[in-house]
Amino acid sequence: MIFETISTSNHEEVVFCHNKDAGLKAIIAIHNTVLGPALGGTRMWPYASEEEALKDVLRLSRGMTYKAAVSGLNLGGGKAVIWGDPNKDKSEALFRAFGRFVNSLGGRYITAEDVGIDVNDMEYVLRETDYVTGVHQVHGGSGDPSPFTAYGTLQGLLASLQVKFGDEDVGKYSYAVQGVGHVGMEFVKLLRERGAKVFVTDINKAAVQRAVDEFGCEAVALDDIYDVDADVYSPTALGGTINEQTLPRLKCKVICGAANNQLANDEIGVELEKRGMLYAPDYAVNAGGLMNVSLEIDGYNRERAMRMMRTIYYNLGRIFEIADRDKIPTYKAADRMAEERITAIGKLRLPHLGAAAPRFQGRRGN
Ligand SMILES: NC(=O)C1=CN([C@@H]2O[C@H](COP(=O)(O)OP(=O)(O)OC[C@H]3O[C@@H](n4cnc5c(N)ncnc54)[C@H](O)[C@@H]3O)[C@@H](O)[C@H]2O)C=CC1
Ligand SMILES: O=C(O)CCC(=O)C(=O)O
């Protein structure tokens, strides 16, 4: 059953990590390393079952392959999940045990933050392996990638507004933002700074209150976010929120947010197209964090990172052009762009085997 699943999703390697003393149950999935080592964050979540955790890590790691490819990065796709409650189960031992597993892969997989994980957790991982990014600036790292992901999402939004409305006046439009965590809070701040009307929701009531008090957003109940009459829906929490149940409720003209795996399935992408809703493919929009942490490999440079964020605008423009040219939905255009690059470069290079391990210039003892 597991081999069948892995073979259907075309993964290279899936590692089940277990350490009883540390209470670690984690899965690292390496989807594809044709373009380079697999870089992708670690998610900590109280999954209902092992199947759910496996399904999540497989989808997320595949998405990373496409994200790196479409963004022009020399990176493959991988991701990890730790099965646990981020509010209760974190410890130094847990993250160090996890770090050892990451290290054992010799640089084929490089980790970073995702949902439920912050820069302090990566501090422990760094004690066990160099193959971690998004580490504190004191170590020569780039810190929390979320503000970059949010800024990159803004670039994707500008490209989307341009295509849909013919202008890039963020403040003229209204937004329904689902999830005000690390990325979402930064994103609503950027929207409000530009004068936009912003509706927010989150399961974390304190986060919603902060978005209201500090940034002047309007709170809506969790499920009501799908019914809000806003121009743009921004999924910035977990994946799969655009599905058969929510689609008929959405009134927006543009979908542009930072969450990974927003579409429940490909048919939803086709349906969005039919309904004239512009879908900005998630992995192209939310690549800012990946771009930012990837710069740690050669020596982090913030100015370079900010310049890279702008490429998201052009990547989205290219995706929309392909969709228009080939008369295909935007999700498919993004997939096509990514797959063409992997195929072309794959003909030139063999899969990354760890021989040319990432360097991590300028960090710690380097
Ligand atoms: N942190 C980063 O740089 C990147 C994050 N992403 C994606 O962006 C999304 C958000 O990531 P982060 O902000 O880092 O995570 P986070 O854990 O800081 O924030 C997620 C927020 O979503 C909320 N949430 C969970 N389920 C919800 C629901 N059903 N309805 C409303 N709110 C809900 C949580 O309470 C939390 O506040 C995730 O899908 C992640 O994979 C993608 C690229 C990079
Ligand atoms: O931004 C990060 O934490 C690394 C990249 C990543 O995991 C993602 O883009 O989902």
From TrEMBL:
Task: Please tell me whether the keyword Oxidoreductase is annotated for this protein.
Answer: yes
MF term (GO), any: oxidoreductase activity, acting on the CH-NH2 group of donors, NAD or NADP as acceptor
Identify the keywords attached in UniProt to this record, alphabetized: NAD, Nucleotide-binding, Oxidoreductase
Q: Where does NAD(+) bind?
A: G179, V180, G181, H182, V183, G184
Its GO biological process terms?
A: amino acid metabolic process
Identify the residues that the record assigns to the Glutamate/phenylalanine/leucine/valine/L-tryptophan dehydrogenase C-terminal domain, covering every copy.
143-350
Which Pfam families is this protein grouped with?
ELFV_dehydrog, ELFV_dehydrog_N
User: Any idea which residues are catalytic in this one?
Assistant: K79 (proton donor/acceptor)
Record family assignment? Belongs to the Glu/Leu/Phe/Val dehydrogenases family.
Q: What does this protein do?
A: Catalyzes the reversible oxidative deamination of glutamate to alpha-ketoglutarate and ammonia.
Name of the protein in question: Leucine dehydrogenase
